Amino acid sequence: MRANPLRLAESRILVEQLRLVLGNVGSTVVPICLLAVLVLFSLSSDSNAAALRTWCAAAMLANLYAFYYARKHLPDAILARQPHRIVWALIAQRAVSGLVWGALIWITFDTASLAGRILAIAVVAGMAGGAVSTQSAVLPVFIAFVFPAVSIVALKLWLMGDPAYHALGLVCLLYLVSLFDQARSSARAARTTIELRFENTGLMEKLRQETLVAEDARRQAEQGNVAKSKFLAAASHDLRQPIHAQGLFLDVLSRTELTPHQRELVACVGSASQASAEMLNTLLDFSRIEAGVIEPQVRAFRLQPLLNKIEREFEPQADARGLTYRSRENTLVVLSDPALVELILRNLVSNAINYTRCGGLLVACRKHGDDAVLEVWDTGIGIEQTQQREVFREFHQLGNPERDRHKGLGLGLAIADGLARTLGHDLSLASTLHRGSVFRLALPIASASLPVEPVAMEHGKPQMLGARALVIDDDETVRTAMIHLLRDWGCECEAAESIEEALALAARHAPDLVISDYRLREKRTGLEAIAALRELLGSDLPALLITGDTAPDRLREALASGIPLLHKPITPSHLYRALVTILPP
Fold it and tell me: CA 363, CA 248: separation in Å to the nearest integer?
């Protein structure tokens, strides 16, 4: 049901309606004063001169007072404080003004010519019509002016006694009804516009508040993410130290004379150590992606040797779980970073094995347009549609509320997705619940003109290095393990826990190479240690950095140094290959 057009709106809407009415006064004050003067000179005669002058003065005075009142009450504070009082004051003003303009007919009609009478009627009709646009925003104010002005004209015409004037009087009444209908429509439109503006303002304020809440939540999430990264970096570093030393000791121990039972126990301890190292390396891979320090080394390489390598590594795990591991041969040559593609594939295959209870998995590659699409199929538990984007989030795992370590940390797919984005490759997932999943990685096919990287050869039994090594590490256990391992490789080895001690040892016996931990005591770094030793012994001194840090800023700093960097826990074979690389022939 429509609201009564004569009923005043609520205060905040009424204030805006009053602002419209009062704001229009300024644009009409000069034209109305000029019109009053024009009427005075046009219709004045000897018989009505005094009355018409009085009328002109009254019309101008009412007009100027309306202008003064509007300027005084337009400020927001006054309007908001007393809107209803201002409405009644305006009704009174407009009623007086309406009477004044209606009186023009009574003053001039009896003595004016036909043209003068037409002019008088036209002036009053024009004033009434103009009020529709200037005063109808507050309908009672409009009526207070128009009703007395037009009614007085109609009454005068009815009293003229001429049927033609009677008809003209009825026309005035019809004109009054028409003006009221137009004013009501105009008032409704103005009110609707004001209400919409308030709604928009409310929505904008709500949006602003929600934006502030979202911004605050984003800041908290970023702070939480930074705190998480710092915690992981600290925890990872502290855990890597003993596991790194443990791996080195186990390698030395495995090459001593052991009974079969002792060798079996060493193998079991080695497996446990390797599992711990793999979890920490997973955290490191994720930290490297977050830090943005991965720089792809794109080249052309054949996919099949990589698939064979992954199959040799994971087929025993699949067999142990009663799963069938199958792969299809291909001759495709792709353009990407083989090491990063291997890491993506390793995580996808590991994920497939972890979440498949029966059946098996298939690793295959097929040509699709200009791409080679690497696919990992499994017959595992499948993933619901609503979870298919969530599985790529870090630490998100399906069906592992007990956090079974055999199912990993929930970082494998996050690492695969991050590496794919780093390489600019598309990684997609299709899955059906309880039937299995397929992950697809699209790799660009290499041009036939590009040289193909040869397959990396495995190193055989380590040869004696015959070099003098200086180890710098603030962890005594790591220093001891490194000394035993390096001496097994035919090195003369000394160890220091600080830069000053390392400089003293180097001054007595110049080393052929330096192996330094990145983070030393008193907030000093291996970069400082290597720089100090190179200043003493020459800038060509071979050096190797080892770090257990996963903090993004430290990873970026270490990578920027240009010194070869290894990450704890390091397998002895990786350390050996790095030493062979940096030592001169």
Answer: 34
H helix and E strand count, the chain: 16, 12
* Phi and psi angles of residue 409, each rounded to the nearest 5 degrees, phi first: -105, -5
- For 428, the token pair is 């997609």
511 backbone φψ class: left, alpha, beta (φ>0; ψ -120 to 50):
beta
- Nearest Cα to Cα of residue 445 among 559, 354, 368: 368
Q: What are phi and psi for residue 463, nearest 5 degrees?
A: -95, 160
Cα–Cα distance between 324 and 80 in angstroms, integer? 80
Extract the tokens encoding 577: 């290959």
**DSSP-derived 3-state class of residue 189:** helix
Peptide bond into 569 cis (omega under 30): yes
Distance CA 140, CA 8 (A): 9
Residues in the chain: 585
- pLDDT, residue 401, reads 43
Q: Answer yes or no: are the C-beta atoms of 190 and 136 closer than 8 Å.
A: yes
- CA 44/CA 340 separation, integer angstroms: 101
- Percentages helix, strand, coil for the chain (3-state, rounded to 5) are 65, 10, 25
Q: Which residue has the tokens 């005594």?
A: 476
- Of 582, 510, 550, 227, which Cα lies nearest the Cα of 415? 550
| Average pLDDT, 10 consecutive residues per value, the chain (585 residues) | 55 79 84 88 86 90 88 70 82 90 87 85 87 85 88 87 86 88 85 82 83 84 70 59 65 73 69 58 57 70 86 85 88 85 86 86 88 90 73 57 47 79 86 86 80 49 80 86 86 90 91 89 87 90 82 70 79 83 81
Residue 568: closest CA among 281, 275, 339: 281
Give CA angle at 125 (123, 128), nearest 5°.
110
Of 348, 425, 422, the closest CA to residue 392 belongs to: 348
Rounded to whole angstroms, how far apart are CA atoms 536 and 58?
A: 106
Q: Around Cβ 406, how many Cβ atoms within 10 Å?
A: 9
Give the span between the Cα atoms of 19 and 13, in whole angstroms: 10
Retrieve residue 356's tokens: 């498949």
Task: Give me the half-sphere count of Cα atoms (radius 13 Å) on the Cβ side of residue 530.
Answer: 26
Quote the CA–CA distance of 79 and 14 in Å, as a whole number. Answer: 9
Which of 474, 419, 391 has the alpha carbon at shortest distance from 287? Answer: 419
Are residues 356 and 438 in contact, defined by beta-carbon separation less than 8 angstroms? no
* DSSP three-state, residue 565: strand
Which amino acid belongs to residue 252? Answer: V
The residue type at 547: T
Q: Does residue 561 contact residue 527 with C-beta atoms inside 8 Å?
A: yes
- Is residue 341 within 8 A of residue 349, CB to CB? The reply is no
User: The pTM is what?
Assistant: 0.42
Beta-carbon contacts of 244 under 8 Å, excluding residues fewer than 6 positions away, are 478, 481, 546, 548, 568, 569, 570
51-70 CB burial, b ≥16 within 10 A, e <16: ebeebbebbbebbeebbebb
Q: Are 310 and 326 in contact (CB under 8 A)?
A: no
79 φ/ψ angles, rounded to the nearest 5 degrees: -60, -45
